[in-house]
Specification:
The chain is of the alpha+beta class. The chain has six helices and five strands; from the N terminus they run H-H-H-E-E-E-E-E-H-H-H. The chain has one domain.
Length: 184
């Protein structure tokens, strides 16, 4: 499924995305905050929106591009699932992260890679695709943005010495990715 857009993005970029997604996935259970009371007890069930938004926010803050929030629905139901995609020209998905795919009994692990999420075999009706901040649910539920901000602070604190927290970009060598990689 490799495209010209994918091959133009450095392997170091993909490696940084994988490492960040893995770090954020672990943080869902290790950080003191949760999106709502009792959420950690059922992780990853019903976390897909909060987890995808938090991951997208951390990726963007660490110069790993703006990601498209994808909400898909079952064919004949309001039930749905969400994940994020890095999209190229012609709005094609270059990279997909379904950080909570393993909430479904059909799949044993979360998904990260150039292939589409296996969840598309189940969730085939588009609910929303675009920036997470423009997703209609965000307008009526402030917990999505609040949790994303808490996740960003938590990851930043774990990555930086205590005297540098709050200085996210200071001293970071800019090798990943080039502006053209994030805006194909």
């Amino acid at each position: 499924m490799e495209t010209a857009d994918q091959s133009s993005i450095s392997p170091a970029f993909w490696s940084a995305v994988r490492a960040t997604a893995t770090e954020v996935r672990a943080a869902f259970l290790s950080m003191p905050d949760e999106p709502y009371r009792g959420a950690k007890g059922i992780f990853p069930q019903v976390w897909c929106e909060w987890a995808s938004i938090a991951l997208a926010e951390v990726l963007a803050a660490h110069d790993l591009c703006e990601w498209t929030f994808v909400e898909m629905k079952l064919p004949d139901s309001l039930s749905g699932h969400s994940w994020i995609e890095l999209r190229g020209d012609r709005s094609t998905a270059l990279f997909t992260i379904d950080i909570t795919l393993d909430q479904f009994p059909e799949w044993d692990d979360w998904h990260l890679g150039t292939a589409p999420t296996p969840a598309l075999s189940k969730f085939s009706r588009t609910g929303y695709m675009g920036p997470w901040r423009d997703w209609p649910a965000v307008a009526t539920n402030s917990s999505f943005a609040a949790y994303a901000e808490k996740m960003l602070r938590y990851v930043e604190q774990r990555r930086r010495p205590p005297n540098q927290v709050g200085q996210l970009h200071q001293g970071v060598q800019r090798t990943l990715p080039s502006p053209s990689e994030c805006d194909p």
